[in-house]
Amino acid sequence: MTSAIAPGNTNSGRVVPDRRNVLLVTDTLPPDPNGVALIALRTAAALAQRCSVTLLGPACNDIPRGVRHIPMKRSFLGTQDVRLPVPAFHAIYRAVAESKEVVVHTPGLVGTVAILMARRLQKPTTLFLHNDYRKLITFAVPWAPRLADIGALVERWAAKAASRVITAGEPEGRLNAHRLIVRAPYYPYPATAPGCEDVVTVSYHGRVSREKALDVTIRALAEVDKRQQRYELMLVGGGSLLSEVLVLAESLEVRVRNIKWCEEPRAHLSASHIYVTASREETFSISTLEALGCGLPVIARAVGCIPSYIEHGRNGLLFEKDEELPGLIALLAADPSLRARIAAGALSSTVRTSIWDQFADASVLVHD
Fold first, then answer.
1. Are 342 and 269 found together in one domain?
2. Cα→Cα distances 311→97, 108, 315, Å
3. 170 pLDDT exceeds 60?
4. Domain CATH for 229
5. pLDDT band with cut points at 50, 70 and 90 for residue 101
6. β-bridge partners, 185
């Protein structure tokens, strides 16, 4: 069988024999513009502080120091935002065999093969379910509904095959599931005093794809602003629908400041007045947690785990229907004291343990 390992990009080094050898498997890594890619990369960095970590996934130029990387070639499969890697079976088998435990961040092609081999070799496995695969595939390829059914079957099998499952919310009846409550992280990026109140800056960062519903945010700003140019959208990120979103904003005369996808979006977000996420599908919603950590007043759709850490009126505002969003934006924009109160509530809900350390703790909890 021909190897699908990409050349270069390997942060090799001898595994320290007296430290736990953890294999972290993911089907997505930067430059893929999505939160799961950053979760895997930063969890690897956090784990490397106490374990010998091997990261198996797509080729990536930003591998943390001390992490051994086994890169996989990217295939044509996937979406415009995420190209799934080709599972190199021999390399995956060898990596699983050399590890003491396996942590799988996505039940995609590579992750599913890793779970299968870990089960065969009787290695303990932890599976993170960051998203609902059926809904994710439905958003990515709406023209192929049968793929969503296949994705749901793969996810169900992976959840049963893994030794332990970490879910964002309720285990949904899975007998071996553990619930992971992710608290808003502490960040040294408190919101700075934005400039002139003549322009209200609404921010968003992350992937620009169908399920993130940036069109809803732009239409809400157009309705609130009525072409007075008092609002602007700071969009930190990129993705398959970026061009479409920018064209929509221009047609509705909504000002957009687009900042390319970057490793550290908080430096940009901290200068905005309001943070909005209208996403129709989320689990942890790392971007929303980061906005809270910046001390921003957040408006978010009540999906996924967001209602578990945002209390409406205290540290953010929640909505369910698209038509509710313009009124909430106008409410915060017109009342600086309300913004300040909700921003203070956001900071008070943070903890000093970063979300990445929380994921790392959950990854190795099975043996601690």
1. yes
2. 45, 33, 6
3. no
4. 3.40.50.2000
5. very high
6. 351
